[in-house]
Amino acid sequence: MERPLFWHQGLFLQPQHFQLKDVHFQSLLTPFHKFLQPHLWGTGGLEIQKAALGNRSVDLLRGEFLFPDMTYVVFPGNALIEARSFDEAWVEGGKPFTVFLGVRKWNGAGENVTVLSSLADLSGVTTRFVTTADSEEALDLHQGGPAAQVKRLYYVLRLFWETETDQLGDYVVIPLAQLERDGEEIALSEHFVPPSLTISSSEPLVNLVKEIRDEIAARGHQLE
């Protein structure tokens, strides 16, 4: 549990004061997550580019995710991710192939942000966050004062394969999807349901619930 800061007259403000304030505020949510909703994590909806699967690549188009460490990520929005090829990783083509989504864990020792001149290439980024060297303009939301230059952070999301799970100690991950091969065609498995925040978050889960509903209704009609 993070301790609060001591704010006092004459304090010389440093970046660490605001960083630690953010960390303390986030730690206040720990009891809720730990005791009231310990299993509240998973996907709130996602979409994978199906056409890219034919090129042996996974490309996430959009998604909403709550990781087990309470990290809330929306793409596009507050996160960035690059497509990744699974051509060499999927060795046993006759078996389903599970894809994971990960975000690097918070490093309490520091160095959680990488600053880049451009966000076009994230391949060399190994930190939790990324930002650009150039600032963006932010308006005064309270009094209409002069605009200020700020730098916002993006979460860096990574795609991982089932063959890499033993190497992901520095990441928090969510099972994202499962691939199936039918001859030369590769598709998303309709039988795989990722951890979901709601029933509507997963199309296969919605379809399963509808099938159960229809079967129960049919049985009920037979008993009338």
What does this structure look like?
- With 224 residues, the chain is α+β, with helices and mostly antiparallel strands.
- The strands form four sheets. Strands 5, 7, 8, 9, 12, 13 and 14 form a seven-stranded mixed beta sheet that branches.
- It is globular.
- It starts with 14 loop residues before the first helix and ends with a helix.
- Strand 3 and strand 4 (72-75) form a beta hairpin.
- 20% of the residues lie in helices and 32% in strands.
- The chain has two domains: 1-36, no CATH class; 39-197, no CATH class.
How many alpha or pi helices? 4
Largest sheet: 7 strands, mixed
| Domain module tally | 2
Could you spell the SSE succession in H and E letters? HHEHEEEEEEEEEEEEEH
Rg computed from alpha carbons, rounded to a whole number of angstroms: 22 Å
Shape: globular
Question: Distance between termini?
Answer: 59 Å
Count of strand segments: 14
Structural class: alpha+beta
Give the helix level as a range of percent.
Answer: 10-25%
Q: Please indicate the percent range of residues in DSSP E strands (runs of 2 or more).
A: 25-35%
Low-confidence stretches: none
Query: What is the residue-averaged pLDDT?
Result: 91
